[in-house]
Amino acid sequence: MTLENHTWSHRLDEVDLEELSRLYLLAPLGDKPPEVLATVFGNSRYTCFVHAGDVLVGAGRALADGVDCAYIADVAVHPEHQGRGLGSDIVRRLLELADGHKKIILYAAPGTEDFYRRLGFLHMNTAMAVWSDPRRAVDTGLLRPEE
Is pTM, for the whole model, over 0.85? Predict the structure, then answer.
């Protein structure tokens, strides 16, 4: 399907994993090697990939169990395509794909709450997490330290 000169795909086998890895560095969502992206996208129930011509400019995924809970993760947009609504379109597409789940959750980088609020997300009062590097997650504002 094409939307505003973008071609959308939901198939990991149609994506160059090296290009996907570069997109995550540029977005910037960190260093995610191709083999890691193959695993996390391969294990995700819903995926979105967006191309402008031959260039991968957006991606996102959602883990889901099919009924109760879906989790939107790793929404990345190429810097030259940010601020044009593509990130919102990716999140909306993932919300559509996960429609019917009792709850759809995500965690957001500090400062992005208004963006997600405009897409219908509300703050959770009971969300908690175990992080592989809790000190870094606290330092970057993703987790609150216990008092």
Answer: yes
